[in-house]
Design a protein that fits this description.
Length: about 450
Amino acid sequence: MGPVAAQAPPSEVIRQGHVPADSLFKLLYVPIEVPAGTAEIRVQEDYNRQGGNVLNMGIYDPAGYRPGTTAGFRGWSGGAKTSFFINAQTASTGYVPGPIHSGTWHVLLYPSTIAPSGLDWKLTVTLVPGPTGAAFVAAPAAATVNNRAGWYHGDLHMHTLHSDGRRTPAELVDEADAQGLDFIVSTEHNTNSANLSWGRYARPDLLIINGEEVTTTAFGHWNALGLDATTLIDWRYAPQDSMIATHTAQVRALGGLAIINHPFFPDTINRFQFGVRHFDGIEVWNGRWDARNEQALRWWDALLRQGRPLLAVGASDTHTAASSPNQLGRPRTVVQTSSLSRTGIMQGLRARRAYVVADRQLTLTLTARATGPAANIGDTLVVAGGQRIKVAFQLRGASAGTIQLLGATGVLATSPVAPGGSTTVRWQLPVGLPRYLRVEVRNPKAICSS
Ligand SMILES: [Zn+2]
Ligand SMILES: [Zn+2]
């Protein structure tokens, strides 16, 4: 498969313009007339890179391009590519193969960095006539791997060549296997192109869940987890447009979850600006543990104190191969579910039956009880006045560090991690409601949290 061979001379359309510095983050739609009989569209983007200019790119077909509709969506590569092609059977990664309908297509340009002198751009669009090739056949991943209840290890955030990652989908699946992951969620920036083909890379024991990293440079990133392969969640709105509720509701209507990603990355721009009330969870641990993750954890904890319990997740956000520090499955979210399936994982996450660990050898259990049955991670424990809560915590796979039991008033108890690789701690709390309980385990190299 590849670009179609031209049977008649291709035609070329050139569009160019200047984006002044005050047009940062403004969406620019460049119309392209596509005649009947076109078999393939090729787009080449050129712009001056001086001053750190970045011009993101995507394309819509005649079915529609306006914000609020994704009917005409045919792909997005952000700042990761400067050229792409689409034909009936195949397309560049990030783009959606299918019929090349005649009519007005729109190339979307989105400047996310502009030098004071502005940005000069040029699009060279090549329209290749010819017969339509064989139709693209979508092959989404199976929604269920097994119906066994358990705690499953997953990575909720990653990128391949379908956005700005460096791996092929096949390499990513190989690595998921090698890292002992039970499930992964595909979260490319602003495109569902990878989701249309995960079935081609399926492994019998690996669940691949469709997702999308809904990405704006201006207002932050969030993950839509648990989508249908054909669904794209639009990203073209600002906090003041009051559109975020509609889009997170769209995710929930599919049984999915909306998670705020790396809310404090990077330091200068990109801080998360949509209202937290629209979201189900926060990625408190993204890639390698650092001060910005610490900030995200504090924010999540502050929300817990306010009586707003959100799901906390950790994920690698991996973009590069196994040898990189940003490795698939580090950290990972471990989820309790009744089945290894998209529905099961989403239900487990929604119920907050989940914990986050640095890597594959770490597992834990946490229970709390008063006089009745024990509550597990994610459960609500009902405590009558005057009853004391007993907490049991078990950690495997760590042989150094400190365990802290935390509640709304701060640290409730502290214990060392036993050197042998398995630690069991029991605490009895003084009378009085802690409102919530959580555990953090830290050592100089790693942290895990539940
Ligand atoms: Zn991101
Ligand atoms: Zn990401």
